[in-house]
Amino acid sequence: MAKFKAIRGTRDVLPEEWPYWDHIERAIRKVTALYGYRKIATPILEETGLYVRGVGQGTDIVDKEMYTFEDRGGRSLSLRPEFTAGIMRAYLENGLHVQPKPVKLYSVGPIFRYERPEAGRYRQHTQFNVEAIGEQDPALDFEVIALALHLFREIGLTGTRLQINSTGCPRCRPQYVSQLTEYYSTRLDVVCSDCRRRFERNPLRLLDCKVPQCQPVIAEAPNIRAHLCSECRQHFETLLSYLDAASVPYEVNPRLVRGLDYYTKTVFEVWVQGIGSQNAICGGGRYDGLIEELGGPPTPGIGFGSGIERLVLTLQEQNVPVASPSAPAVFLAHLGEEAKRVALEMVQAFRAEGIPALVSFGERSLKAQLRDANRVGARVVVVIGEEELRDGRFQLKWLDRGEQTSVPREQVILSVKQELRGVALD
Hints:
Strand content: 15-25%
CATH superfamily of the largest domain: Bira Bifunctional Protein, Domain 2
Radius of gyration: 28 Å
Oligomer: single chain
């Protein structure tokens, strides 16, 4: 039994699962290139104040979910709980704001949140993140949403549903929050303790609650769309017109608010059936005031995040086929110390020719080595023993067709290459 175990909320990604990760990462590189997004990487450690100011005091992330500590210099640091605030910090610090707008960026990396582990959600998980900075055009909202949907099609998911809403802006939202607060003031005795806390500190988050007892109250809450200012209403209606023109199906969800303070106007999620109670595989929206909140000039932006672990789980539940790593083409079996030396030399020569090859280790019988070759799926076994070394001819056992040939030592690699011609090796 292992003395140590993975920390609750973290997990090991074992070799058998990596074909799904590779499948998703190839799709990410392909789709981001099609849309003109460039990769950026930011540290997993940032000053805690960046998230308090950017994400918002009173949000669940800042109040309950961040991994925060004081370093030896007395600074309060936090493990990255989300990407956007750190990317906006990098945007300002590194002069990306002088580049042509919109600045299109994407990231892939770990984020950390102390929350109850659920299907596809872990305290350390990997996120694909997209940001488009510098334009308020609803056409950019359309492109970001289209990129997300394109990615999910590319990896083979079916049954996705786009949920979309507008949360207004600092000009029109206060009126709605006032009405929402009035509505909830007479219902605090039937909502959860977290909602009673949100009522005092961040009323809009009331609509984001997932606790079953709160759902009837949320269902009857005032609709934010009735309180949008003319600018927000026009932005949202224009975005919907672009989705309609492109025949992108969507559902306007008036209860969708997302869980971060920096969202303004457009918010959206992509849902899919499966993966337990968590059916959202993507979430994001517009954050037109975030950079200004972090000390920069007024700069609009929009983005989304999608958890890789959740995508992997959804691919598995939908039985989406992914490419498995190719089996080694060649297995070198040897009998005796001199044969082992020759096998080690030859396996490197095969690899230098771009042919995947394995060699047996230890001192095993030929029968055991042939079993190993079958288990790894090798196509041909090169048998090197005392007799083969004396005669200068090596045996080639073709496992995929049950044939055996004898080939001069110096022609082994050429003979195998000719047989494998046209066979994909990677």
